[in-house]
Structure formats: C-alpha cells, structure tokens
C-alpha cells in the first residue's frame, strides 16, 4: 500500500495551480512551550486552503469525454473552491453543491473562480446526496472531497514538501482530520520515508469521526456533528482514509472550541495569518499533546490548512481564545450587596486583571456577579478558586459552561420574581437569511416566551437561548413538541448559570 501511494504522490499533478507553501517557525509559541514548532502554510495557496491539491490531481486524471461532460462536487467550502479553480484552469464546467449554511466568503470565492454554485440542504450530507443526483441526471463526474486515491495523493504532496523543507529530525506531525484525505496522504508518505515520525490526527471533540472509528474498529456515523470548525464537520470518516489510518496513524487528539480559538490567536501572533477554525485545529492538538505528555526540546510540525473565515466570526473567536489558553476564568461569585464590596473582591483576587464584569441588583443582601479574571497560567485557576473559598466567597467556576459563555455573559442579572413555571432551552439552527424568523415560526405560540437571547457570530449555525412559561401539566408536551420541530436543543433549566443570574 505504501509504495503504491508514494508513487501516486510523486506523480501527482498539483503544481499547475498549487504552489509549494513555506514552513514558518512559530517563534513565540516555541519559546513559550519549550519545543520547536513549525507551521506548514497551506493558507497561502491561491484558494487559501490545501484542498486545491487533491481536487486538481483527481481532475487531471479525467478522460477527454469526462472533461467534456463536466464535473460536480459537494463541499462546505474549501474543496468547492479547489474544484472551481481547477475546472477553470482546465476549461471544464464545474457545478458546486454547497450546504445553505456555508459561510458567504466560501460561496463567493467558489463563484468568483468560475464554479456554478447550487445551495442545497443544511448539511454536507444533504448537499452530497443532491450532487449524486446530478451525476445520474446530467452525466457529470463526481469529484469527492476526500475519499479517493487521487485526492489522497494530491494532499500527500504536502508531506513531500515538509520532509524536503525540514530534512532534520522531526518527532511528530499533527494533521487536521475531517473526512481523512489529508491525514491519509501525509501518513503514507511519512511512514514510507521516515517511519520513526509520529503522525497524529487532530479532531474537534464534537466531530471526532476518526477517533470513534478507531475505537470501534470500524467506520461509524456520528449522531451529531458540531459545526464550529465547519471545514472538518464530517459525520463519517472516508472508507479509503480509514483503511490507511488504521495502519499508519499513531494517535488521535480531540480539542475543544475554546482550544481551537486559542490556536487561532497563536497562529496570528506568530505568522499574522488569520486561520479558519479548522485551519488552526492541528496547532490546537499540538499544544494539547505538549500539555499531556510534557514534551520538551522536540520538533513538532502542524498545518495551517485554511484561512477562509468570515470576518464576523473573529469577535467570537477572540472572546473564547483566552479561555482556551487557560488564561481567563469565568466565575459566578456571590458578594455582599453593599458599598465597597466589589472593591474588596478585587483586593482578594490580587494583581489579576478583571476582564469582564456583569451585575444587576437582585436583593438587599447579596449580589451575584458574573466576572472574568485573567490568569497567570493554567494552574492559577485552582489557586484563584481556593483563595475565594478561603475568603468565604460562594463561587462557581463557569469556564467550561457553554451556556454561560454563549449567552449568560450577555444577560447576567435579569432576575424577575413574577415569572412562574419558567423553563430554559438552548437551540442551534442553520444560519442563513430569514433563519431566525423561520425558527420562531416553527417554535409556534403555544407557550409564553419569557427570555430570548440570540447573537449572530457569522457561523454556520445560529444559537438562541429561550425561556418559556410551561405549566407543570405541559412539561412532557413541550419536550415532544421540540423534538418534533427538529432543531438541536438542550434543556438548561437546571444549569447553575441560569439559577444564579436569571431564574
């Protein structure tokens, strides 16, 4: 298998459109983490992503008849741009089926490169089904985003460049994983030439389809897929990539949204590149590997796999980066409701900076504050909590509470003692023009809405927090109704952030 794939990689036709991207040393991060950290800059490709390599190589193998009929693909963005640019270069008609939730920057880019874009469905899987229909109806050739030997070989040229650019010792290469085409191409080339180098996959913890498959010993389909890092939001690893990964991938690391945001910031500070969440995924995994293993003085490589992100998302990324780096704690603290009590609280936390403070008067005895505190290092959070407890401050750590970070920080203090039988629900729905109105229409008017919070983060999915007055006899009925309308939701009525600041 290795020799056959290495031959494909060496013969891959990618450089008619792709460039050999440089490798940048992350000097600030290397110094901070006591390792040599190198970043392969695939964000510098003409389509700002590595996907161009595999798309062009697969299309270069088409017969003249297939070229004449045209090609079709399904993609959430980066592969679409690669196919569109490759088709333009080769004079082939390309139809790109993209989910309706695809960020506008990726839709516009695919159109600008000559692709005919069709928006279909709310997920990659729905878009892929429609693309396959077009193959049957129009005779197009389908160009898969990852599950194809020539696509894998095209992506494998990245490994060829990396080993040539850094012929000295390498301890590990960290690779972002969605459908698996990239890690398959890198793994076969690296393990053939330098088998001592570890190849480690990195997945978002809410879309870890490779890890699930390796754990099960077979490909599985995830029940739900998180979409913050939409470039790797895949429910099932590709068949051929999984076959390769079983033999040649050494480990898989999963990372949180906050850890991805921290890596986006690190990537910017060291290279001035604004990567998309999936583009910074492998750096997030590299950092977690160092933290988990205590690695020092090693040479570790990762890939900035793409930079196609909406500008609107940067606010959300910046908001979460410090939490991901463990340089900020979000706390719910109860302090006395009297003049000077916040000043006293600030004295107790010492020289740590307050990064956020939300408060609203609730009663004459106690004030509940939602406060962000800057930390010296990851271990400082436990020390801060212990300090507050020793000073008799009731405190709850909200740093890992998703509802608190998404919504409560913008709503803190909204108590209303007149509301009875309130239940709180957090929703996600596909984000596109008119989506919020459609969501409200589907929600119906069966129960009185007592709280509503929505922020558009420029992401694929909108996030809403809703309070509703639900009489005791309707509690089962509301669950049945919400399940029927089909949006992902969580019952947050017992969430401590709600009880402290809103209930």
UniProtKB/TrEMBL annotation:
The protein's required cofactors: pyridoxal 5'-phosphate
CDD domains, per database record: ACT_ThrD-I_1, ACT_ThrD-I_2, Thr-dehyd
Pfam families per the UniProt record, alphabetical: PALP, Thr_dehydrat_C
Cited SUPFAM superfamilies: ACT-like, Tryptophan synthase beta subunit-like PLP-dependent enzymes
One term of GO molecular function: pyridoxal phosphate binding
Pathway: Amino-acid biosynthesis; L-isoleucine biosynthesis; 2-oxobutanoate from L-threonine: step 1/1
EC numbers: 4.3.1.19
Entry keyword Calcium: no
Presence of keyword Plastid: no
Keywords: Amino-acid biosynthesis, Branched-chain amino acid biosynthesis, Isoleucine biosynthesis, Lyase, Pyridoxal phosphate, Repeat
Gene Ontology biological process terms from the UniProt entry: isoleucine biosynthetic process; L-serine catabolic process; L-threonine catabolic process
Catalyzed reaction equations: L-threonine = 2-oxobutanoate + NH4(+)
All copies of domain ACT-like, residue ranges: 329-400, 423-494
Function: Catalyzes the anaerobic formation of alpha-ketobutyrate and ammonia from threonine in a two-step reaction. The first step involved a dehydration of threonine and a production of enamine intermediates (aminocrotonate), which tautomerizes to its imine form (iminobutyrate). Both intermediates are unstable and short-lived. The second step is the nonenzymatic hydrolysis of the enamine/imine intermediates to form 2-ketobutyrate and free ammonia. In the low water environment of the cell, the second step is accelerated by RidA.
Assigned protein family: Belongs to the serine/threonine dehydratase family.
Quaternary assembly: Homotetramer.
Identification of the protein by name: L-threonine dehydratase
Organism: Oceanospirillum multiglobuliferum
Chain's gene name: ilvA
């Amino acid at each position: 298998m290795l020799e056959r794939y290495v031959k494909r990689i060496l013969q891959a036709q990618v450089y008619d459109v792709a460039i050999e991207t440089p490798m940048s040393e992350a000097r600030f991060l290397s110094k901070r983490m006591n390792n040599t950290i190198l970043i392969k800059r695939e964000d510098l490709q003409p389509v700002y992503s590595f996907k161009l390599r595999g798309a062009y190589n697969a299309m270069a193998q088409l017969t003249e008849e297939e070229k004449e009929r045209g090609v079709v693909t399904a993609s959430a963005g980066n592969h679409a741009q690669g196919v569109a640019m490759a088709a333009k270069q080769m004079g082939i008609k390309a139809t790109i089926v993209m989910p309706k939730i695809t960020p506008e920057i990726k839709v516009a880019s695919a159109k600008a490169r000559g692709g005919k874009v069709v928006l279909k469905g709310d997920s990659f899987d729905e878009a892929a089904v429609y693309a396959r229909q077009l193959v049957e109806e129009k005779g197009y050739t389908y160009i898969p985003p990852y599950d194809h030997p020539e696509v894998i070989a095209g992506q494998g040229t990245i490994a060829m460049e990396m080993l040539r650019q850094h012929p000295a010792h390498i301890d590990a290469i960290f690779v972002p994983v969605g459908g698996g085409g990239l890690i398959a191409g890198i793994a076969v080339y690296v393990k053939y030439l330098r088998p001592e180098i570890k190849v480690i996959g990195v997945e978002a913890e809410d879309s870890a389809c490779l890890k699930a498959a390796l754990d099960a010993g077979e490909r599985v389909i995830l029940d739900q897929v998180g979409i913050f890092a939409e470039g790797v939001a895949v429910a099932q690893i590709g068949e051929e990539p999984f076959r390769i990964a079983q033999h040649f991938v050494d480990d898989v690391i999963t990372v949180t949204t906050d850890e991805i945001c921290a890596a986006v910031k690190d990537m910017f500070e060291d290279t001035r590149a604004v990567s998309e969440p999936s583009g910074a995924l492998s750096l997030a995994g590299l950092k977690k590997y160092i933290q988990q293993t205590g690695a020092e003085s090693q040479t570790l490589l990762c890939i900035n796999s793409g930079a196609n992100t909406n500008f609107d998302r940067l606010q959300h990324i910046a908001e979460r980066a410090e939490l991901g780096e463990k340089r900020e704690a979000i706390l719910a603290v109860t302090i006395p409701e009297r003049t000077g009590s916040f000043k006293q609280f600030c004295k107790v936390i010492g020289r740590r900076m307050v990064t956020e403070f939300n408060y609203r008067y609730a009663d004459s005895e106690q004030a509940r504050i939602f406060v962000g505190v800057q930390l010296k290092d990851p271990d400082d959070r436990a020390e801060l909590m212990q300090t507050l407890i020793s000073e008799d401050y009731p405190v709850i750590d909200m740093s890992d509470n998703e509802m608190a970070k998404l919504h409560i920080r913008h709503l803190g203090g909204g108590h209303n003692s007149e509301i009875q039988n309130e239940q709180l629900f957090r929703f996600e729905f596909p984000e596109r023009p008119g989506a919020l109105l459609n969501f409200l229409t589907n929600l119906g008017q069966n129960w009185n809405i007592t709280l509503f919070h929505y922020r558009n983060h420029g992401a694929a999915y909108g996030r809403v927090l809703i309070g509703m007055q639900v009489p005791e006899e309707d509690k089962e009925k509301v669950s049945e109704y919400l399940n029927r309308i089909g949006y992902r939701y969580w019952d947050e009525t017992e969430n401590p952030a709600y009880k402290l600041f809103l209930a």
